[in-house]
Design a protein that fits this description.
Radius of gyration: 16 Å
Shape: elongated
Number of domains: 1
Oligomer: single chain
Number of helices: 4
Mean pLDDT: 89
Low-confidence stretches: 1-10
CATH class: Mainly Alpha
Helix content: over 70%
Length: 146
């Protein structure tokens, strides 16, 4: 899979660890939010797709946590970020914007890091986040058309 020991060599590496911790918190928060959104979804198709997106977020959380532990020697302590809206439509909009912002954040991390495994994981997560944003936009558009 990957070498379990990456060594912090500079303050730049320390900044990347901080970015990875932020990514972990984002995935942790997204998984919690999407569980709520799935429960509010008006149709089974939407609910199932949101739960699939949630699975991706959990997978990203797990991979990022492994990377964080390898880099820092510590287990992450994830924190919930901004509270998920309690209204379905507002939640979809919130999720869409969050996913779009996350795409660029993950690409930035991938560009800063030289280890191939880490670069690939953040590039892959970025592509997943873009796909999630498209789904949320689709659900938002469908609601406006009805």
């Amino acid at each position: 899979m990957y070498d379990n020991h990456y060594y912090i060599r500079s303050s730049a590496d320390s900044a990347l660890i901080t970015d990875i911790a932020k990514a972990i918190n984002g995935q942790y928060s997204a998984a919690a939010c999407y569980e709520q959104l799935a429960k509010m979804a008006p149709h089974e198709e939407e609910r199932n797709q949101i739960l699939e997106i949630r699975k991706d977020e959990i997978r990203h959380f797990q991979v990022f946590s492994q990377i964080y532990t390898s880099l820092s020697g510590r287990q992450p302590t994830p924190q919930l970020g901004e509270q998920c809206p309690s209204d379905y439509y507002t939640g979809l909009n919130f999720a869409f914007k969050d996913e779009q912002e996350t795409v660029d954040f993950y690409l930035d991390i991938a560009e800063k890091w030289n280890h191939p495994f880490i670069k690939e994981q953040f590039r892959r997560a970025s592509a997943d986040e873009q796909n999630h944003a498209v789904w949320f936009l689709y659900f938002l558009t469908q609601r406006k058309l009805k």
